[in-house]
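Recap from last week: sequence in, structure out.
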Amino acid sequence: MSAFAGKWEKQDNQSFGGKVKGSMSNPGPMKPRLDLAVRQIQVQVAKLDSASIKLRERDNSIFSKVVTSLQKHDAQRASVYANELAEIRKMNKMITQAKLALEQIVLRLSTITDLGDIVVTLAPAMAVMRNVKQGLGGVMPEAEGEIGEISGLLSSILVDVGTVGGYSMNFEAANEDAERILSEASALAEQRMKEKFPEIPSTLPSAEAGTETSSY
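Predicted structure tokens:
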């Protein structure tokens, strides 16, 4: 275990800039590299959150245009805006799901304390990262490359674990764990979308229906 302790505890005095690529080419101690991966994933979470806020602002603007068009009985224009709104919400759900999944990975990586934790945590984490990378490719191309670098860093740590501890990976269990993380993130993203965004209207309530409702 002394060899692993050296790999785990030794501090890294390299400046923050360029650490990801440096960690991939020159492995070094594991804990500083894991800490770096956590910080880099947190950066991605913040970027996804910012992108979601911007999409929410666009959503509010387009939703108002749908309502205004329906008020003017311009069904064709309302339909165009409604389709645009649906695409914005699809993008926002994808970004929200990715953000929630990465938050789960941060939580798991932050609780790693020993070699066994690394083995059971990194494999599903990498599977989730691959899925998030693919999902964001058409929405946030810049995030795709950055997440790819983080995945490379995690991969180098995983290889190092196998070298130091001689552990083998249970990829079937890892994939099941990754699927569970992604499924939970998808369900929560769907719930949040329903809570935050009103349904896209196809028609507006008639004046008669409003009068009838108010009379009760």
